[in-house]
Amino acid sequence: METWFWIVGWSLSILTITGNGFIIFLVNSKRQLRTKTNTFVVSLAVADFCVGMSVVPLEFLCDITDGCKWPRSWLSWMQLIKWLFRYTSVTNLCSLVLDRYIAVVKPLKYLTFMTRRRVIYMISFSWVFPFGFVILTTALLIHSKPKILDIIVTCLIMIFCELLPCFILIFFVGSMVYLVFKHEKAARTLAKQLRFNHGVLYKSHEKTTVKIMVIIVGLFLLCYGTLLRCSILVLADFRSQCNDKAYKILLLVLNSALNPLAYAVLKRDIKKESKRFYEVIFKKGNKS
């Protein structure tokens, strides 16, 4: 890898570790932030934190120790760890968006449906599924001899860990945006009929929720686009090669670095506590 890659890569890794570490610390240290939604936020932040700790550092270790030149190096333990945390971040994002989808589409049933037990089940699945799936498929790849089995297992990884989550996220976010648009249109019509207020009567909390999900998923799809492009090319023709490894790694870490910034800026409760935290730190700095 070239020098520019390591400069950008390590900078993004530090930003990812710092930002997600702050979100984890803030939510766990403030009782008022320990909500069901923030449980999903913390789980995603832990996954993104692990991405920052593993992707570029392990790539650097692979580079300086010539680990990338080992036979079938992409099956080495370093590549396996990167796969695990990358896909764990994706599944945790899906769980977070699903939670918000239920809250927006079925707000009256949300409190009774999204119990503490279901939250634990969803978060556990977000971690167990990618770990189990990747370890199982990697074991099959290591011990497989027929080339056709390599192709089948690779296709399964691409479909279930890359392509399918993206389609799920697009569907959930698209449904939420459509619902918000539909309710706003109905509210405007009602306001005109009553000659009362031409402003939008839709709940700002739900609009903010949808806005956060659109930004987070939009950033994810933007950063994941290069990886998807490569996956589609490989699925279409296994002889094709994608010579964009450096850009894929940087975009992957960039996505994990941007998530905590979106929470700190857009999510009202985290934004409020972040401001309070920085004010306390700033005051202590001035006193000293």
Give a verbal description of the structure.
Helices cover about 85% and strands about 0% of the residues. α2 (about 35-65) runs antiparallel to α8. It has helices spanning about 5-30, 35-65, 75-105, 105-115, 115-145, 145-195, 205-235, 245-265, 270-285. It contains 9 helices and no strands. About 30% of the residues are buried. The chain has a single domain (about 5-270), classed as Rhopdopsin 7-helix transmembrane proteins (Up-down Bundle), CATH 1.20.1070.10. The protein starts with a helix and ends with a helix. The chain is mainly α.
Keywords:
single chain, 288 residues, mainly alpha, Rhopdopsin 7-helix transmembrane proteins, 9 helices, 0% strand
Distance between the termini: 44 Å
The 3D shape can be described as globular
The CATH class label is Mainly Alpha
CATH architecture: Up-down Bundle
The third-level CATH topology is Rhopdopsin 7-helix transmembrane proteins
How many strand units? 0
How many domains make up the 3D coordinates? 1
Q: What is the structural class?
A: mainly alpha
Question: Quick one: CATH superfamily?
Answer: Rhodopsin 7-helix transmembrane proteins
